[in-house]
Design a protein that fits this description.
mainly alpha; 12 helices; about 75% helix
């Protein structure tokens, strides 16, 4: 793997870690559905020069946009608005890894053995431990929203597999274009008056929205799609393992979110499970994935 690509993945890890702060500041200043609508507006502006009509693929792109765009990001934004301890959300958001594996077993008939099964169990057990933390228990709605959004993103990753040959900025541009009217309509219905207050959004909030859009989506998600066109997922995935730990550190330092013993135990269990799944998948054969 080229050193520049290794550096790029590490940059993405850092960007995604900082994105927890950017999202939290954004949804505290702007209603969450409107915030993610504005975020996708910035993404669309950045990707517009790369967008092309793709004959035979537009239906799949549309479905991917609804699931991995509007649903996943909408639920994620709502979860951050409902939460105080975003560190717990950063850890719960890692359930996309076991969700993706479970979906691959169902739809791609991938076969796994007890090691990765134990990773799935540990991942969910860790999140369950966090949910019953007395200081996080009142935020269980936010964690459930995060889990729901993560599941939608996991479904989207299966759909992304079939779009791997397309230019990443083309795909993410279409995802933004499809998501904007859906999220905008949801905001109009759920958040009365949100649209009228756009003119009053502070420059600092636009900065956080731009960070999430350009950093989290264009550089992060589209950049990862670019890397997956050049390297197998088994090479890329293990290098994203530092992201949740970095996210917790950033949230604790910048936002002052509390770190409890239950959260530490739950986080360790979840990350052990994620590491088992990721590393065992990385060591499995490309054609017939076993572990």
């Amino acid at each position: 793997m080229k050193p520049i690509h290794i550096a790029f993945i590490l940059l993405i890890d850092l960007i995604w870690a900082g994105n927890v702060v950017a999202i939290k500041y954004s949804v505290d200043a702007v209603p969450p559905l409107m915030a993610v609508t504005l975020r996708y507006g910035i993404v669309l502006g950045a990707c517009l020069p790369f967008m092309r009509w793709v004959p035979g693929q537009m239906r799949l792109i549309a479905v991917t946009g609804v699931i991995a765009g509007a649903l996943a990001m909408g639920l994620g934004s709502m979860s951050f608005a409902a939460a105080y301890n975003v560190s717990a959300l950063a850890i719960a958001g890692q359930l996309g890894v076991p969700f993706s594996l479970i979906l691959a077993i169902i739809f791609y008939r991938e076969r796994i053995r007890w090691i990765r099964v134990s990773g799935i169990v540990l991942s969910f057990l860790g999140v369950a431990v966090m949910v019953f933390d007395p200081r996080i228990f009142d935020e269980r709605i936010a964690i459930l929203l995060t889990i729901a959004g993560t599941f939608c993103w996991a479904v989207g990753t299966l759909l992304f597999r079939q779009l791997r040959e397309l230019h990443p900025l083309n795909v993410h541009g279409w995802l933004a274009l499809i998501s904007i009217p859906l999220l905008g309509a949801a905001s109009w219905y759920q958040e009365p008056g949100a649209l009228a207050h756009i003119v009053a959004v502070a420059p600092s909030t636009w900065g956080w929205l731009a960070y999430s859009a350009i950093g989290g989506s264009v550089i992060g998600h589209a950049g990862m799609s670019y890397l997956l066109r050049h390297y197998p997922v088994t090479t890329i995935s293990p290098m994203t393992l530092p992201t949740p730990l970095l996210s917790v550190i950033v949230a604790t330092v910048v936002l002052g979110t509390p770190v409890t013993i239950e959260m530490v135990i739950g986080g360790i269990l979840t990350m052990i499970g994620i590491a088992i799944i990721t590393l065992r998948t990385a060591n499995a054969p490309e054609v017939e994935v076993l572990a």
